User: Fold these one by one.
Assistant:
Number 1:
Amino acid sequence: MERFLDLGHDIVLLLKNYWPGYLNGIKSTIILAVVATVIGCIIGFACGVLNTIPYAPQDPPLKRFFLKLIRVIIRIYVEVFRGTPMVLQAVFIYYGLPYFGGAQWPSVWAAAIVVVSINTGAYMAESVRGGIISIDPGQTEGAKAIGMNHFQTMTSVILPQAFRNILPQIGNNFIINIKDTSVMFVITFVEFFAFHRYIVGINLMYFPSATIEMVGYLTLTLVSSFILRWLEKRLDGADSYELAQADQLTMAAGTYSHPNRGTPFDELSKEKQEQNKKSRRNRNSSTRGEL
């Protein structure tokens, strides 16, 4: 129990002396995660759409060549950035450009956004491709039947439905980015985890500062999960629906019943059936009398 009291005392001491630095670190983490996720989703949607453009053997050879080339390039991009750690991607992108004679990055912020965005785009490309494929092919055929081209079909029919299907994956990537931005310290980007490393270097209070980091990251991810679930429910609409049959016009459409004859779907009692038979016999006898 005494150790927990000491831990609480050390945490309070750290927050009292360094709370502005922790808050700035959280702010940098959130901004980087949001911006990189948005850009990554744009990259992923572009790659997913390009990767699903159909072509047929009867299409011009040039068209088939370029579509195959695009798919190969996207495949290489996805495999490279999904198959390597983000920390090494940051090293290659931030330090590799000057190493090969390129210009220096204008700021560490720009480099961090590019690294996280490209990494997110690689994961989103496959998510978008899967979301597009999951839509019933009949939707595409129906859109083509009414004269839509591929672009109109994607923007008006397929992507709105695919977006709802991949929304959980978008949220998952955002939460991952909140945590994975911690590796940006390797390019001197100061975010939440980088400030923790700075504090530890000053006072060697590693575990109390790590506890603050753990609680901070957990709070960020829990709040993000709550917001994303709320957004999913908003997109799904209301849970309760009134059946169309509740409309009186709908109930009456095509079910008009003759006052005496009824409809084939009526379940009449025996008395009512006998009454209808007598009415039909009387009507028939009166008709014969007139003749």
Note: The longest helix spans residues 2-51.
Number 2:
Amino acid sequence: MQSTTMNAKNHVAALRLVLPSALAVLAASVTAQEAAPTFYEDALPVFQKNCAVCHQPDGPRVGGITAPMSLLDYSQARAWAPMIRNALVTGYMPPWGAHERHRGEFKDERYIEDGEKALLIAWVDGGALEGNPATAKKPAVAEMGDVDMPESGWWIGDPDLIVQFDRPVKVEDKVVDWQPTIQMPVPEGAHTAPRWISKAELNPGGPWVHHIVSSHMGVGVPGRGPFTYPEGWGVLLPEDPFITVNMHYHKNPGEGTAVTDMTKAGFKFYEDGAVIDHVVETNLLPHRGWTIPAGDPDFKVTNTHEIEEDIYLLSMGPHMHYRGKAMRYEVEYPDGERETLLWVPKYDFNWQFLYEYQTPKFLPKGSVLHLSWWFDNSANNRFNPDPTADVVYGPETTDEMANARIYFAPTTKRGIVVGGEIPEDVLETARNAEQRRRDSADLLDLSKDDLSWLSEE
């Protein structure tokens, strides 16, 4: 009996010790729940600042990609909360390949502040609470950036010229990769004299458009937005009844997989009286002649390119395919000093950004670009089409590429007045670039259903 009494006393004493601790934990939990971030008060302003440029109702297509949900809507944000957390933790979102070391160097960068990332993760971990819509914080317009698509449906605003295919292009069931060269007719009377491009935007018909290449529109790849040249920089669009584009379609084959594409392009031109000091040039800087061994998780290739005159480097656009892992541009100046221009440690084929300097970078004559690409051809790369195959440089999506495109201009100012006489060398260069694109491939005739290419080896 004494033993039972002692056990009871000990149990009561233990409860007296445990209960306060348990209550304290419960109270802390309640307090934490009450203090947990809410959508309208905390998460929404962060979404507006960092995500809504794409994640909005009827979001824009950027390089053929459309965001799958609006983060301005609580019900959608809550449904996607676990995926949002994973994207933030892994660094997949916001999408931006340039390393943190480049913060502030390039236009339209997509870095998210550590505190903002932590707040969104806390919002998810706290139950993705809604909060009171009346307390929503409305950020300043300047903070939100270009969130709303203009009424024109083009990020560049109302285009001065729009071109598209003469008729929709059918990408048949059996197609995996197809690379036709197609001419977009210029509407009659819409472009009767050479004009200087200030902005150009490619509008792919869908995600099956792997890329678009044009002499005058730039390059369209997944995730890439419009081209906007700095004031005084431009590309000349010659007068011509057609604009030629190299298309690259890629999709899964099979019955019922056929799609139709109506890719468009829009242009804005400089007004008469503006001055073009720098005529934009581009160089793909491809590197070929290598083989990635099957299963190799970290294959590296390097190349160099000498700068033959003083230039301003405007932007860089690294390009690889599914096995692309990382890419680096470096410059070695004539005095031997070496500088990293761009380091992309986690290349993503689905987000092939053009990294445009806030201020074009001066590279003197005699500088050497050192270019490095890394590839993962192993089974650990979930995007790898076939880790058992050796891979070479090639045009198919399942091949690989090692390109280091640059946009630049000589430093000598041209002083070309828009609306006035165009120097013959500039006009000839622009016309020749268009003609070379036509001469280098068989043009697809959209006036008839020519499907003979489907049976070609």
Note: The first strand starts at residue 61 and ends at 62.
Number 3:
Amino acid sequence: MARNFRRKNRIRAEVNLTPLIDVMMSLLAIFMITAPLLTTGIPLTLPKGDGKTIEGQEKTLDIGITKDDKIYVGTNEVQMDTLVGKVSAIVAENPQINIIISGDTNSSYGRVIEVMALLRTAGFTQVGLKTDAKIMHDAAAKKRK
């Protein structure tokens, strides 16, 4: 009878995983809700393109042109006459950076070309245009059918 008494009072060495799972699910829900809100920048509607990506996306300088033809370097608005100086300072710190122009669909074509020409004449030869590739992929899929 003494043996049965010892077995009943034995301490169990188990880890209760229920609270740990609850905490992890709560954190997952928080990250899923906040992750889309962390993207920063200016709101642009990009024109459609061929869908080819540029290698080294983490090394790009994004120049945005809004529908009312305002120019942004990153999230900072700049004037046309200070654009080259700002870009030159950034490129001096990182010579391997790619310059990408993101023009809103409703911005004037002339303003996008004007910015691109200004950068090219200032000596920046690696200037690209950012587009939204979803429409081109859809059109290519329809063409294959």
Note: The two ends are 81 Å apart (CA to CA).
